[in-house]
Amino acid sequence: xxxxxxxxxxxxxxxxxxxxxxxxYSSSYSPSLFWYVQHPNKGLQLLLKxxxxxxxxxxxxGFEAEFKKSETSFHLTKPSAHMSDAAEYFCVVTNYNQxxxxxxxxxxxxxxxx
Amino acid sequence: xxxxxxxxxxxxRRRGQEARLRCSPMKGHSHVYxxxxxxxxxxxxxxxxxxxxxxxxxxMPKERFSAEFPKEGPSILRIQQVVRGDSAAYFCASSPDRxxxxxxxxxxxxxxxx
Lengths: 114, 114
Prior knowledge:
The structure holds two protein chains of two kinds. By secondary structure, chain A is mostly beta strands. Chain A has no helices and twelve strands. Chain B is about 0% helix and about 50% strand. Chain B is built from no helices and eleven strands. In chain B, strands 2, 4, 5, 6, 9, 10 and 11 form a seven-stranded mixed beta sheet that branches. Classes of the chains: A mainly beta, B mainly beta. The interface of A and B includes residues 46 and 106 of A.
């Protein structure tokens, strides 16, 4: 069975300061991991994905995430927050040998203060 | 290349009516996934379809819900005799192959049951 735990339901940062959104996963198989972002009343946009290549993954808009197998973590970071980063972020796990359905975390709401 | 399209974007139904949600995958994509997002929750997998076939419906409620992806035309998620608990955002995603391909999401249909 696979699952994802996002450790913070809400994170608040000031503009220009670093962002850290935490995610731990559980998977019986080699997982593929994703971060998606959802702006209010919008669809989901892929930020980045890990599929067993480099453990440090760079995504769009300056975000990156590091896959740490020993810690079963896939935390999302950004060096400097921008007001436009305010949104809901979802950590997602899947295993394509199991059909490819995505398993979502509960989400972390990121607020950015001016 | 147009993205995943969903319509309607908003749908209001009274209890007992039927809701039909449509999803047109990206051009060249033959795999469609439906997810439901209840208020204040992450997305939950419902069903995975290929053209004319249901591959995995393990997330579908046992009654009132059905899905199809015909040879021609969009994928349809059908909810019969809607109840207030069906109020949610329904997202469709498509991918070109069930291998290690990313799922691309549509903007969602927000269903409100009065």
